[in-house]
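Record 1 of the preview.
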Amino acid sequence: MGQYYLVVNLDKKEFIHPHKFNDGLKLMEFGTSGTGTMAALALLLSNGNGQGSGDCDSEHPSIGSWAGDRIVVAGDYGNPHKFFPETTTEELQEVANKSFTEGHQNPEAVTLYHLAKHSFKDISVDIMAAMLEDAYLADNLEPVLNQHTFQPFKETIIAAKKKQKEKIAECFTTQVIEYPKQKEKIAECFTTLVIEYPE
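->
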C-alpha cells in the first residue's frame, strides 16, 4: 500500500494535506508537484514574498507564516514518539484510538503523522486561498476546485484572473507604442477576454 505523509509544523501544530492539493499522499507523489503541495510549502516558508517579480501575487497572511519553524515531512510509518516527547500517555492513547483499528490501538505505535492528523490544525485551505489569489497558480489549480472543499474559492480564482488581465492591459496601454492602431487593438484584446469557469 505504501507510506502516507503530511507536511507538519511542529512549532505551530499545523499541517498541510497533499490530497487537498490534488496530490497523492506518498512521498514522491506530492514531492514532485510543481503547483500543489510543494508550492504551498514554498509559500508557507517564504521570507520576502512580494518583493520581486516572480513572487506569488498575494498578500495573504499565511504566506511566510512557517518561515523559521521546525517542519517535518511526517510518514505514517515514521519513528514513534520522535518529535513529541512531551505528549502524555493519555493523549497518545486517544490518538491511537482514532488512528488504528480495534485491537491494535497501541499508543506506542503513534507517529507524528497520526498525532498531527488528529490533534493539529489542517491549514491546507488557508494556503490554498493565498495560492488562488495568484493568477498563474489559480490556472494550474483549477482541477482542485472540482473538489467540494474548495468550492468557496470559485470567486477568488475569477478575481485572480481578472486582476491578471488588468495588469497585462495596463502594461500594454502604458508602454510607448508608436502605432496608435496597434495600441488600440492590444488594449481591446485584453479588455474583451472571456474568463470561463466550469460550473
